[in-house]
Structure formats: C-alpha cells, structure tokens
Amino acid sequence: MIRVVIPANLRVLAHISGEVELQVEGEVTQRTVLDALEARYPMLRGTMRDQLTQKRRPFIRFFACEEDLSHEAPDAPLPEAVATGAEPLLVVGAIAGG
User: Which CATH superfamily is domain 2-93 in?
Assistant: First the structure.
C-alpha cells in the first residue's frame, strides 16, 4: 500500500481527510502513483501535472524520505520506503514570492 499526502486545497477538492492509501501495480514511480491517485480521484486530474504533457505543474513539488524528488524522471523508481508504505510520498504546493 502506497501512502500519499496531498496539499489541503487538493484534499478539499477531492473530499479527502488525511493521507491517501493507494494500491499500485508494478513498479512504484511518480507516474504510477499519480495515475492511481487520479484514477481514484478524477477531480484531481490536471492539478498536479498537465493533462496533455503529463509534466509536473510548476508550483508542485514531490518529496519522500527527506529528499526533493521533483526533478526526478516520472518513471524513476521511488525510494523503497515509499514502495513498502513505510514513508509517504508528499505532494507539496510551493510558494513563490518574497
């Protein structure tokens, strides 16, 4: 079971309280986790990645095991701790400005 924590505004949009647990078939990557998340919560499509290009939205970041995975390839395997459910994948809305 994969654990995912998404920003509060997206939890409200999807009517989720707390962390999401997902079953992911095959290799656990950013792409497979987001595919499973969007399949379960279709209202999240396009909020974390562009629907056409599948690229991460500019102000969305992915973290796991105290590492910024935002610039990793979408098909790169996520850390083992995420794949086993020991650690969650964190989706964080970045803030710009000063």
Answer: Beta-grasp domain (3.10.20.30)
Q: Which residues of the chain have pLDDT under 70?
A: 97-98
Kindly write down the DSSP assignment for every residue of 41-98, as one continuous string. -GGGTTTSB-TTT-PBPTTEEEEETTEE-TTS-TTSBPPHHHHTTSSPEEEEE-----
Residue 94, pLDDT score: 81
Q: Give domain limits for the chain.
A: 2-93
CA distance 54 to 46: 8
Distance separating alpha carbons of residues 67 and 89, to the nearest angstrom: 10
Contacts of 84 (CB under 8 A, 6+ apart): none
